[in-house]
Write a structure and sequence with these properties.
9 strands, alpha+beta, 2 domains, 176 residues, 3 helices
């Protein structure tokens, strides 16, 4: 039987990990927002050449993968125990091509996103809790944000594109 370790990630969700028979390390982060991250990782003893992979899955994709692998929805049930209604705490990892890369964190409330908090910015091995609006964000930083799922999604769109709403094209239906 596989030894599955469960770790609560305060404000994020739950991490389940196990080691495969051939020594591979696999984990699933089940976020409170409903999506999951399927990850493979290495310990420091594995050396710098060990491959690391992260794959973000939405709720339907996670269920499909679980069914393909013959799993159950136990993880979903456990993560619901940790849920706080109306609150989503999620991580946004900044890539080089994201709008926020190299920019000041700024005040999202001044742009119309009220009720969202940047709890911390994780840079390398250290966290910068409650960063000020003039905190400069760099590629590789991870922003930890808290708010309603809709506001978290809106903030992530802004961090990625600089836009608060998706662009509407001539082919878009009215209202969206």
């Amino acid at each position: 039987m596989v030894d599955v370790r469960r770790v609560k990630l305060p404000g994020v969700g739950v991490l389940h990990t196990f080691v495969t028979q051939d020594g591979g390390k696999v984990g699933v982060i089940t976020h409170r927002s409903g999506h999951s991250d399927l990850i493979t990782f290495s310990d420091a003893e594995d050396g710098a050449d060990a491959a690391k992979v992260s794959l973000r899955l939405d709720e339907d994709e996670a269920h499909t993968l679980a069914e393909l692998l013959g799993g159950t929805r136990i993880t979903e049930s456990l993560s619901k125990l940790d849920a706080i209604p109306g609150l989503s705490i999620d991580w946004f990892t900044v890539d080089y091509d994201d709008y926020i890369a190299g920019q000041k964190l700024g005040n999202l409330a001044s742009k119309g996103v009220v009720g969202l908090t940047v709890v911390a910015v994780v840079r390398g091995e250290s966290a910068n809790p409650a960063p000020a609006d003039d905190f400069t964000v760099f590629p590789g930083d991870t922003l930890v944000v808290a708010g309603s799922p809709e506001k978290v999604s809106k903030a992530f769109t802004f961090y990625r594109t600089g836009e608060l709403k998706p662009k509407v094209t001539a082919d878009s239906p009215p209202g969206g």
